[in-house]
């Protein structure tokens, strides 16, 4: 996000009218996607540890509520992964659709 704001600030200092929709939007989109991907990467890195912990909790025989919570969390993670992949695919489609449009404006 800061990359997009930095680019916008530099453009403003150069006398480019504010807002500069094409350049700012492009920088903003890159920053937004980079931030999103950084978060997803962190989740991917923590997934094995989280799954091991949940797997251990599934064996908590004297605590059925803990077992239920662990099972529910595992199912939610699977759904969220599917959602994240869907979001990324849709973002790619939107960005691809906007490329020819923004190139014609310059």
Describe the structure.
With 106 residues, the protein is mainly α. It has one domain. The chain contains three helices and no strands. The chain starts with a helix and ends with a helix. The relative contact order is 0.09.
The fraction of residues in strands falls at under 5%
Tally of alpha and pi helices: 3
* Radius of gyration, taken over Cα atoms and rounded to an integer in Å: 21 Å
Tell me the helix content.
over 70%
Total number of beta strands: 0
Termini, distance in Å? 23 Å
Main sheet: strands, sense, barrel: none
> By helix and strand content, what is the structural category?
mainly alpha
Mean pLDDT: 77
Identify the overall geometry: elongated
- For the record, the count of structural domains works out to 1
Give the topology string: H per helix, E per strand.
HHH
Model regions low in confidence, pLDDT < 50 over at least 5 residues: none
Briefly summarize what is shown.
The chain has 106 residues and is mainly alpha-helical. The protein is built from 3 helices and no strands.
Key structural traits:
106 residues, mainly alpha, 3 helices, 87% helix, 0% strand
Q: What is the secondary structure topology, with strand pairs?
A:
Layout: H1 2-13, H2 21-58, H3 64-105
């Amino acid at each position: 996000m800061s990359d997009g704001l930095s680019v916008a600030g530099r453009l403003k200092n150069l006398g480019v009218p504010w807002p500069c929709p094409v350049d700012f939007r492009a920088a903003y989109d890159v920053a937004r996607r980079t931030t999103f991907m950084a978060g997803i990467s962190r989740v991917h890195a923590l997934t094995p540890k989280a799954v091991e912990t949940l797997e251990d909790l599934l064996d908590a025989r004297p605590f059925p509520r803990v077992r239920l919570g662990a099972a529910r969390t595992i199912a939610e993670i699977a759904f969220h992964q599917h959602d994240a992949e869907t979001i990324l695919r849709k973002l790619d489609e939107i960005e691809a659709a906007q490329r020819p449009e923004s190139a014609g404006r310059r």
